[in-house]
Amino acid sequence: MEILACRRPVLVCILKNRKLIKKCNTHSHNQQRNMSHITQRRMNSNPLFRIHNPQLSRNFTVMRVLSSLLKIRYLFISGAIGSGVAVSKKYQEIMDSLPDLHWIKDVLPDDKQLKIIQDSLNSIFDDMKNVNLVSSDQLDKFKTWFEFQIDKANKDAERTNSEDKREIIIKVSPKIEAKEVSSDSREKIDKLQQEIIEMQLRYQKELEKLERENKELRKTLLLKNNQKVNLRKVKKSLIDMYSELLDELNDYDSSYQTQDHLPRVIVIGDQSSGKTSVLEMIAQARIFPRGAGEMMTRAPVKVTLSEGPYHVAQFKDSGREFDLTKESELAELRKEVEIRMKNSVSRGNSVSNEVISMTVRGPGLQRMVLVDLPGIISSVTQGMAPDTRECIRQMSTSYMSNPNAIILCIQDGSVDAERSNVTDLVSQIDQQGRRTILVLTKVDMAEKNMANADRINKILNGSLFPMKALGYFAVVTGKGNQDDSIDSIKEYEEKFFRNSKLFRESIGISSQLTTRNLSMAVADCFWKMVRETVEQQADSFKATRYNLETEWKNNFPRDLELDRDELFEKARGEILNEVVSLSQVSVKDWEEKLRGELWKSISHYIFEHVYLPAGYSVNQTNSSASFNTMVDIKLKQWAEEQLPKKSINIGWTVLKDMFKRMLEENQNSSDNILDTLKMAVIDEALERHSWDDKALSTLRVIQLNALEDRCIKNKHNWDEAAQFFISSLEQNLKLTEDLLKTMVGPSNYEKWFYWKSSTADQTKRNNIKSELENLLNSNPDHSNLLTKDEQITISNNLKQRTGQPCELDDIWETWYLVYRRHYFKTALDNAQNLKKQFYLYQESSSSQGEYYEIELFWRITRMIKDTANALRQQITNREVRRLHQEIKEVFDDYNQSQDMKSKLLTGRRVTLVEELNKVKLIQEKLEDFIQALNKEK
Hints:
9-stranded mixed β-sheet; 9 strands; mainly alpha
């Protein structure tokens, strides 16, 4: 009773700092609802700005409005309004029921915290200015009055505390020894300690209630700001800028070993230790897939937490937003995460290094970047890759080796500490514990299992594990049911710590309990480390950029800094320009090229299947009618079936050759690094290209008409046909003589003067050739066939001459070339005479049978001309445009494949530009982030 009677005015000042906000909320509840209407009232009618009136009622009105406004920063200004005279009377009854304990001041705000409150109040005033709630003059008056009230409260507290300090310490001590007190006193002390714990938990509950109210206020404020932001350029939040910066660094150096030393929170723990649940409690949404006893996290998941009016999630490479307040979309999000994890794992492996990036926004979320890693396993089970355990350890070590990474070490509190794998791994990386935070999960299960309270306390004060850490926290992240909502888990967590026997005796560790305190501590540590490291990284990338620019100037001084995509677009433009220039090729060049390719393609068929068979028939029948009959039949059949398709193929070949020739001519003025890409695109486009089917039927009609007309109307056409006939005969004669020379060997002249010799087979063939030439000299009009008697005679003559028998096959092979040469010589002499007989041909129609060979080649000449003209028109009018479109399609297809670009555009010049561009981009993002960070600071 003596202890309870020791109530001094000091408690009034101390406990006001924590309790006053509770009653103040009751009076400001109605003003809370009408918060949004304040922004629409006229400034001169707002009671808040009439604070110059010294009357007590007006002061009381100011306090009520202030309590509503300050809920936005309730954690910082809860002790600043305790000195209000009118409000203090309403809490006198509460003060009378509380014990007079000086040591409770340890859990209440100190001078440093009051300084933070003042800074936070200034931030609130800035927010009020930004949303145009009040004017600058009115805010200055209000700030002056508020600072005066704070100073007055501090002076009263110091004066009262100094007077009663000695008496309070003597009468109440938190460290009363068991030997110095009686049993009644001990019970009183235990009862007081229990009341204090309950008071702390009630205070925690009130803070959480205010937190929920604060979320609604923040949401309203953010929505109001968003309405204004939509009218101007949208600015990214600080955490979003930082997250994009980390993504760029990950693309630049995915190993995390050289450049990427910026902070992030690495969530690491043993499998099924609850690390994913901790991350979900911080994000306030069940966003990850779960499996009973199965490894679900198979790839790193980077989660960027930021504040926003709506609770939504979005992947980095997707525009869809998942509403986290709807269970159906939460299920879709978890399914999408699971699918992405499975797709990231290559065949034969169980885990992947590919990062899945996700952003989660919502009211009241702490701004930070967390990376959830696969859980540490002790052994590999069936179905896993043999190296899974080692891969997970290497991945975890790689992420933790970042000297600025915050390690959130998750330890299962329901199992023996000696079974932990993760603590040894973390202690090896961060031996001094300068960036490690230990989180003890599943403490509710530990209590059910009758865990030792001393061991739990040792974990939270850092004396049980060999590892060191910045802080130690205990959380409850689930009730054992996967379908439980975050709100129900938070309520369960609050209830557990309020009634827990494990933590009842642990006075002063309330700040180490609950995921809310954990997230606040992690966020503070995260941003502190960000500010310390980001400028250092900016300097590092500045030096890297200078080195790369120097290398470019020394190695490629005359080239533009074009990356792979820009070079790709340059090649596209050059090739498409070349296609357009095809339409500028002259008609003469097109038709000369087409006529030459057409004759080269059909000459063999004309001589071997039309002219020679018809000519041989004339020698056998001595009738020119048989020649024309055979020629007409063969040409018509050929023109209807084979010639149009062959002509189209020739036209396509000419178009391709002409295009490639133009590219080669312009190659000297082009960039050599583009040659491989250009040729690949051209080959692909030409392979895809097919001639218009409509041209086939038109071309067939043109060719049939040209081949049916054998009438030569003028001297020019006659000379042209005769010259074409003579040149064709000369070409075939030369080709035949070359084949015959190869068969019979060198001549006597070559043997004597060039020291050449003949083989035995060539000597035998040469003897056969001599016998056959003698036969043709004796009968120049001999047919193309040898009679049986002639074969026997030649064989006997050779046997008498050489003493060796001769095979009939050898005679026939040699006869083919000898007679062919004889026929071409005879036809060439005849063609030379016919070339001069146009007027005889024109005057006497009865003698036209003698000119059948000239007529044949006139028909061929006209057919080639008409076909070349038709193909040229088809190319210039349609095929060039179609080729242009097909090349564009090939470029579009290649543009979608980064692998194809990397394959076709290679070399140090390309990679150097890409590295330089990446470094420039990262440096710019770093500088922008530093500017935004300095503005916020």
